[in-house]
Each structure stands twice: as structure tokens, then as C-alpha cells.
Design a protein that fits this description.
With 111 residues, this protein is an alpha+beta fold. The chain has one domain. Helices cover 59% and strands 13% of the residues.
């Protein structure tokens, strides 16, 4: 894979299930640097990394769950307030309509 003016090479390491909990070492010798220092890359235990990732994900999940519950509660609160306000407006309109009709009918009969 080329990135700007450099190239990257990827390799695949296949290991048995029994050696998943062991550390692996990759020794790299460049063709240009024969006889010079070699590069070593250590691969730590896959199981240890998975447990670290899982614990990190679970803590992020807890934070996400807390945030989601908080947003749900705020949404429910504002929805309740909106419905309450809507009902108060409807009540005022109906009350005005009923009082207006009775006042009009009452004025007509008393004359």
C-alpha cells in the first residue's frame, strides 16, 4: 500500500489455538541493510489484548448506557411538558367555547 512517498507491507501471522496466549516475535531484515541491525517486533498475547479491549469496551458501554438513559429521561420530561401545555391550551379553548356559548344563550333568554 502506498502512502504519499512511502510504501507499507502487511503480513499475516497464523498460529494455533494453543499458542494464542504466548508472545510471538517477528524478525525483519531489509534487503538494503544486510549484515546490519535487524528489526524485531514483539506480538503480545492475543488473549490478553482481547481482555483489555473487552474491559475498555464494557466501560465505554457503561458510559454510553448512562448517557442514553439520561437523554431518554430528558426527552420524556420535555415530551410530558409539551403534552401538558397542549392539554392546557385545549382546556382553555374548550372552556372559552363553553362559557361563550352559555353566555350568549343566557343573554338571549334573559332579554
Amino acid at each position: 500500500m502506498k502512502t504519499k512517498d512511502t510504501y507499507m507491507k502487511f503480513s499475516w501471522l497464523t498460529v494455533t489455538e494453543a499458542s494464542m496466549d504466548k508472545e510471538h516475535k517477528c524478525i525483519i531484515e531489509h534487503e538494503m541493510n544486510k549484515g546490519k541491525a535487524v528489526q524485531e517486533i514483539l506480538f503480545s498475547s492475543h488473549i490478553k489484548e482481547l481482555s483489555a479491549i473487552t474491559s475498555r469496551k464494557s466501560s465505554l458501554k457503561d458510559e454510553t448506557d448512562t448517557l442514553q438513559v439520561q437523554l431518554m429521561n430528558i426527552s420524556a420530561y420535555y415530551t410530558y411538558l409539551l403534552l401538558l401545555f397542549k392539554n392546557l391550551i385545549y382546556f382553555a379553548i374548550i372552556l372559552f367555547y363553553l362559557l361563550g356559548i352559555s353566555a350568549l344563550c343566557g343573554n338571549g333568554k334573559s332579554s
